[in-house]
């Protein structure tokens, strides 16, 4: 893995295989929780159903442990997006309630289509940066350009294959990304990432 940049409050894990990244994030956050880190945020749990093409999607709130269903059942042959944006919004609101200045790390499963379009987890990221809480987020390779436009120079990128396969070692390396700062994060140009949130 490349070295940690101390001026980057957002760590993006870039991936191409969503199933692989989902397993990685579940395992790594479990290790972090065992080490008594104060986590906030949302990780995805996909539930395969034998009678459906698409998985049922749930988000687990790392602060409360609550599960939020975020997908619609659009029939056994549905292949398009099944995300329920209203359910996603409610999950984000609940996660924000668990985020405070005492949080060690905000973990978010994906900078996905909703975030690319200006919604989703963007508000949570902005809130974390206002509170000086570092952020760990998954970024599908297909959305990397849009993520870079959003995060500007506040993010460092790590490709998932470069993360240690041992989850304890992975959590150790990612914990090195935590920062101690005195105020809201700003780019050298002076604009906080929160100002970009739509």
Keywords:
disordered C terminus, 7-stranded mixed β-sheet, disordered N terminus, alpha/beta, 198 residues
Tertiary shape: globular
Strand proportion, as a percent range, falls in 15-25%
Q: Please tell me the overall pLDDT.
A: 79
Taking the alpha carbons of the first and last residues, their distance comes to 32 Å
Oligomer: single chain
Poorly predicted sequence stretches spanning 5 or more consecutive residues = 1-6, 178-198
- SSE order, one letter for each helix or strand: EHEEEHEHHEHEH
Helix count from the secondary structure assignment: 6
Radius of gyration, CA atoms, in whole angstroms: 16 Å
The helicity comes to 25-40%
The major β-sheet equals: 7 strands, mixed
Q: Strand order within the widest sheet?
A: 4-3-2-5-6-1-7
**Total strand segments:** 7
Outline:
The chain has helices at 18-34, 85-97, 113-116, 122-130, 144-151, 167-175, and strands at 10-15, 39-47, 56-61, 67-69, 105-108, 135-140, 155-159. It is of the alpha/beta class.
């Amino acid at each position: 893995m490349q070295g940690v940049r101390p001026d980057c409050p957002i760590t993006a894990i870039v991936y191409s295989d969503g199933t692989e990244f989902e397993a990685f994030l579940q395992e790594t956050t479990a290790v972090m929780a065992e080490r008594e880190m104060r986590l906030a945020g949302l990780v995805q749990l996909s539930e395969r159903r034998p009678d459906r093409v698409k998985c049922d999607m749930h988000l687990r709130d790392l602060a409360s442990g609550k599960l939020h269903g975020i997908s619609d059942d659009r029939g056994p042959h549905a292949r398009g997006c099944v995300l329920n944006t209203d359910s996603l919004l409610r999950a984000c609101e609940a996660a924000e309630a668990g985020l405070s200045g005492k949080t060690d790390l905000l973990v978010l499963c994906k900078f996905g289509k909703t975030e690319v379009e200006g919604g989703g987890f963007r508000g949570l990221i902005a809130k974390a940066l206002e509170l000086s809480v570092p952020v760990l987020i998954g970024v599908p390779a297909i959305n990397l350009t849009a993520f870079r436009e959003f995060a500007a120079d506040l993010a460092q990128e790590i490709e998932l294959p470069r993360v240690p396969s041992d989850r304890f070692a992975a959590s150790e390396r990612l914990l090195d990304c935590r920062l101690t700062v005195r105020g809201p994060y700003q780019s050298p140009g002076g604009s906080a990432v929160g100002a970009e949130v739509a």
